[in-house]
Design a protein that fits this description.
The structure is a single chain. With 368 residues, the chain is mainly α. The protein has one domain. It is 62% helix and 7% strand. The strands form 3 sheets. Strands 1-4 form a two-stranded parallel ribbon. Strand 2 and strand 3 form a beta hairpin. It starts with a helix and ends with a helix.
Amino acid sequence: MVHLLRNFFTGSFRRPRELNWLIGVALFGLVMLNGLFGYSLPDDLLSGAGLRILHGVTVSVPLVGTYLATFLFGGEFPGADIIPRLYSLHVLLIPGLLLVLIPLHAVVLTWRQTHTQFREKGVADHQVSGAPFFPAFIAKTTAYLLLVAGVVALMATVFQVNPIWLYGPYVPSTVSAGSQPDWYMGFLEGALRLMPPWEFTAFGHTVSMSVLIPALAAPALLFAGLAAYPFVERWLTGDRAVHNLLDRPRDVPGRTGLGMAGIVYYGVLWTAGGNDVIAHTFHVSLYATTWTLRIALVLGPVVAFEVTRRLCLALQARDRHQAAHGVETGLIVRGPEGAYTEVTRPMTEEEKGVLTPPAEPRPKFIGR
């Protein structure tokens, strides 16, 4: 997720890296699904509650929901086939897809692209500087691989995950207060908790919008929006040039504000996934907590967008001021007339190199 945000804010998804962006979005979704299927396997109370939510979401699909749930679970909940199917998905199918997409993610980097870099003195879109892909990048990637493998092995040795003798087995009639999903599924849990109980009847069938919208429509729009964003920005800005230089977030206020709005939106949903724990911990009303988060979900992204955009514009203005009048040194001198002024120094060529040239066009949607 951090890597995805870094690519978004720096604009490294632009041409010619659209394919790599799409592969990254697919990896993000597959890892989330694999985590969901993994923590649904132990058959303790938390895993069973998660499976029950998955069953309810599947049933909420109009027209075909009951058929999908019956096929997935192998009958009425909990069914006889869900555990073997989740196990096959968790240890075979999704890891196989990851083994294909992760190397492809790296191969595309050398096949169609050059290394991205921030603007500095002596570099340009057509000029690459820095360490080569082999052996520098390969060595760092291998080191990260060994580090992650070591941490995972240490966690498997030291930490106890889902001790079923303490929290299981799952009994449908038992409900655990304060149940929380793993962090990567928290925003979906929060969406379910914040959605009002809306439903309507059509052609003799009840359609539950309180489940359909937060659990199916919201994540579908999230991943569709992520996948389509490079093409939408290119269409809005008309920018079809090849970009090997990264943007500073301050130089693209529109995109940066949009990204911060998305982070706030995600953060509110993630926080709402524990609204009962928050209400209990701080001794406040659960309903007041829920309504506060509902209001924050609507107003928070708007405020975040505008505040971020204005901060970016202010930072741009400071850059222009320093380029024109010099950098503050912190030295205050008194002139012959008695006035105090601060001594400035001209920007070095290296400092000027990171600035966006004034003559370079910036599309209005992202640049102002």
